[in-house]
Design brief:
By secondary structure, the chain is an alpha+beta fold. It is about 45% helix and about 20% strand. Strand 1 and strand 2 form a beta hairpin. It is extended.
Length: about 350
């Protein structure tokens, strides 16, 4: 009888092992299936999180656009009945002569670059209209703080803002400001252009047609800082027009720098003074109806606003435009250059750190 019992154990042992082995395989499959299910669940959660983030961005964009449209509608209501006053400001027959006289009577200085500071650039009523027409702050919200700007002419803006700033960009700047500025800078501009493009004797400015950029309105606030630099070279002349409102702090305008062993900028992009010693030699205050105009030839400029400046959400507006050759003139000037000189003017006009001051 014992022999039969032990014999039965011998039969059962392999069978039990097979069952255990099969059970282990089933467990492994169950674990694998569970792992795959957890992975898919993680992917679904990640996709859901991405979808929520995209929806949050869309919601924020919709809310921002709604606030912009509401601000425009409110400003339009506030400016109802102002058409007559605006027409009188725009139609002022003394506007052009005022601009020409203000620029002609300013002092042209040659260090650290040819520049002038023009006070009372515009008649006070016209300047007040520009300030009244500053776009609502909500319209600048599309870009990060201290990189905020709106190109002029304005498109999405209150009616009053669009009218006064279109007139500024399309009439005042090209037909009143530019001729007076070019006349003011004629001597240094002639010399610099003749030297830069190897133009022989004669009127170098007659070899090109000058034009103005439409410009941009810049909004800067606490913590803004742009280091010493020169603007893009094809913008021969830069005009920075301070849009100071009554009560705005006059500090934190534009700083001017002299540069040791100053050399010509290579390429058309902004020229950053990074590996050469420089010193601040002056500061132009942020004053109502004041313009700083300079030739992009030597020296450097920059600007900063302390992070702890008061008020905490300080708003500082500037209108900037440039004067330089039109596209056809640029091509003709480039064609005059030797391959060795061409590198000093080639390249894109833009830079990721587009300078504002």
């Amino acid at each position: 009888m014992l022999d039969r019992f032990f014999a039965s154990l011998g039969v059962l042992r392999p069978r039990a092992i097979m069952q255990m082995r099969k059970s282990g395989e089933n467990s492994r499959r169950d674990i694998q299936n569970l792992t795959e299910a957890i992975t898919r669940l993680g992917e679904d959660i990640a996709a859901l999180r991405t979808s929520i983030q995209e929806q949050n961005v869309e919601i924020a964009t919709v809310r921002m656009r709604e606030s912009q449209l509401r601000a425009i509608a409110e400003r339009n209501l506030e400016s109802q009945g102002c058409d007559g006053e605006l027409e009188a400001v725009i139609g002022d027959p003394a506007l052009e002569s005022h601009v020409a006289r203000a620029i002609a009577e300013s002092d042209l200085r040659l260090h650290p670059c040819p520049y002038t500071v023009v006070d009372d650039l515009l008649p006070e009523p016209f300047y007040a209209a520009l300030i009244e027409g500053l776009p609502p702050v909500e319209l600048f919200a599309d870009r990060p703080v201290n990189s905020q700007q709106l190109n002029v002419p304005l498109h999405l803006a209150p009616d009053y803002s669009r009218r006064i700033w279109r007139f500024m960009a399309e009439t005042v700047v090209p037909h009143m400001l530019m001729p007076a500025v070019v006349a003011k800078f004629q001597a240094p501009l002639e010399e610099w252009t003749r030297t830069s493009f190897a133009i022989a004797d004669g009127d170098a400015l007659n070899t090109m047609r000058l034009a103005t950029s439409d410009g941009r309105i810049l909004l800067r606030t606490n913590g803004y800082d742009i280091p010493p630099h020169r603007d893009p070279k094809w913008g021969f002349l830069t005009c920075i027009f301070y849009l100071a409102r009554r009560g705005d702090d006059k500090r934190w305008g534009t700083d001017l720098y002299e540069v040791d062993e100053d050399t010509e900028a290579v390429g058309a992009a902004p020229h950053w003074i990074e590996n050469t010693p420089w010193r601040k030699v002056g500061s132009v205050k942020f004053k109502r109806n004041r313009a700083l105009i300079f030739l992009n030839s030597t020296g450097a400029h920059g600007a900063s606003i302390p992070a702890d400046a008061e008020p905490p959400m300080l708003q500082r507006y500037v209108y900037q435009f440039r004067i330089g050759p039109d596209a056809a003139s640029m091509a003709a000037l480039i064609a005059r250059l030797s391959p060795e000189r061409r590198v000093y003017w080639d390249g894109k006009l833009k830079d990721k750190r587009v300078p504002a001051m």
